[in-house]
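User: quick one, fold this
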Amino acid sequence: MKILAVDLGRARTGLAVCDESELLASPAGVISEHNMERLAKTITAQAAERAVGMIVVGLPRNMDGSEGESAQNARAFAEALRALGNVPVEMRDERGTTITAHGYLNNTDTRGKKRKAVVDAVAATIILQDYLDYRRNQREQKKEGDG
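Assistant:
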């Protein structure tokens, strides 16, 4: 199944999508939209256009696991997506993904405006790849338990 990941940000929201085999996550762009209602509608439309079967929204927990304002905003946004769309919406812990994304961009020497334009999509890709790995591990554990 195709899955769309969302890295919700204040200024920009990154998107990533995976192939139907759920093997590889790829960046799918950045949306610059401050209005949550319009953003939810845009992402729901992209999900339909891409024929995804699920949306994963990054949950920005604090390093100690607690949840602050950003996490509350992400949960509210996920609820807005659920209300608009007809695909399941999951939340995925995204602690450290933006830091990891900046690390990847440092390694590829991506700087300036180009970096700003892609960091959120890279973060969404990391969120999605983490979720895909989690799903794969769950399936493997289930197989081992059934066998």
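User: anything notable?
Assistant: Strands lie at 3-7, 13-18, 25-31, 54-59, 89-93.
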